[in-house]
């Protein structure tokens, strides 16, 4: 049997220096968060020119993001390589404090949803404390075209991808308010994107009303959405600007947290889209 030192030398003979340097840089960014070029160089001991080339390559590939302050941090794409489930959990952890605050402020049910194939899955639900309330639960699903969550996720996704989930498919009518025409729905998505939030105007159930806002990654793509929903008899966010404003602030706060915590609190906005494509290929 070879001595340990000899075995180590034998293994090192086949190692690729640039790969080792790449992972050293990723480890440092994962541990320290956003760092500038000089900081990465100092902390890793790798030459500045090599660090610059590696960071430039990783940024081009989408695994590193460079912010306006010339700092680099690990992107949501890299986080998704580690685990899609970890990404979802990271979104949930970041969202729960905001969800609780919204529920306490307005008394209505607050939902967190993510695209899963051609539906929205509820990742987390903070229920209203009213006796009369909506009874959604984590793991339940809702159709994209009849939900505020689905609208905002699609509105802030790639337009071609959104169209692939809508055009040429049967859009089930749940109530008289459900949009069942593909072109009309695509126009609705345009309106949602322009204003930054979307409504479910009794489109799944005439008894329920909902308003949702997207949770965005660094490229402006929706990775999830947050909503406030309540009985139509009591809840009317279309006439209550404060509700919408609070929801938008909460969604923006969650989005910032996910970007700043990458990769431990990251998720890839393209992953749900990829899963949807694979199912319908």
Overall mean pLDDT stands at 84
User: What fraction strand?
Assistant: 15-25%
**Shape label:** elongated
Helix-strand makeup class: alpha+beta
Largest sheet: 6 strands, antiparallel
Q: What's the total number of strands?
A: 8
CATH class category label of the largest domain: Alpha Beta
SSE order in H/E notation?
HHHHEEHHEEEHHHEEEHH
Distance between the termini: 52 Å
What is the C-alpha radius of gyration, as a whole number of Å?
22 Å
In CATH terms, what is the fold-level topology of the largest domain?
A: Beta-Lactamase
Uncertain runs are 263-271, 277-281
CATH superfamily of the largest domain: GAF domain
List the helices and strands and how they pair.
Blueprint: H1 4-12, H2 17-32, H3 37-44, H4 48-61, E1 64-66, E2 72-74, H5 76-82, H6 84-106, E3 109-116, E4 119-126, E5 141-143, H7 148-155, H8 159-166, H9 182-195, E6 198-201, E7 208-216, E8 222-231, H10 241-261, H11 271-279
Antiparallel strand pairs: 1-2, 3-4, 3-8, 4-5, 6-7, 7-8
Helix pairs in contact: 2-4, 3-4, 5-6, 6-10, 7-9
């Amino acid at each position: 049997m070879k001595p340990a030192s000899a075995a180590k030398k034998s293994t090192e003979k086949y190692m690729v220096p640039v790969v080792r340097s790449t992972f050293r840089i990723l480890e440092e960014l994962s541990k320290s968060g956003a760092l500038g070029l000089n900081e990465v160089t100092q902390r890793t001991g790798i030459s500045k020119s090599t660090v610059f080339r590696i960071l430039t390559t990783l940024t081009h590939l989408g695994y590193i993001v460079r912010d306006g302050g010339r700092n680099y941090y690990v992107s949501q794409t890299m986080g998704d390589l580690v685990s899609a489930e970890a990404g979802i959990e990271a979104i949930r952890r970041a969202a729960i404090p905001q969800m609780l605050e919204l529920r306490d402020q307005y008394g209505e049910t607050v939902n967190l949803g993510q695209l899963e194939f051609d539906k929205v899955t509820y990742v987390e639900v903070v229920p209203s404390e009213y006796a009369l309330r909506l009874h959604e639960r984590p793991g339940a699903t809702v159709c994209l075209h009849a939900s505020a969550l689905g609208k905002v996720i699609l509105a802030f996704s790639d337009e071609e991808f959104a169209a692939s989930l809508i055009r040429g498919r049967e859009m089930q009518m749940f109530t008289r308010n459900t949009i069942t025409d593909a072109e009309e729905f695509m126009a609705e998505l345009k309106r949602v994107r322009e204003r930054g939030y979307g409504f479910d105007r009794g489109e799944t159930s005439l008894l329920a009303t909902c308003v949702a806002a997207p949770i965005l990654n660094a490229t402006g793509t929706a990775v999830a959405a947050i909503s406030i929903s309540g009985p139509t008899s009591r809840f009317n966010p279309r006439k209550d600007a404060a509700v919408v404003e609070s929801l938008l602030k909460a969604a923006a706060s969650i989005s910032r947290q996910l970007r700043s915590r990458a990769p431990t609190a990251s998720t890839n906005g393209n992953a749900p889209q990829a899963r949807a494509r694979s199912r319908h290929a």
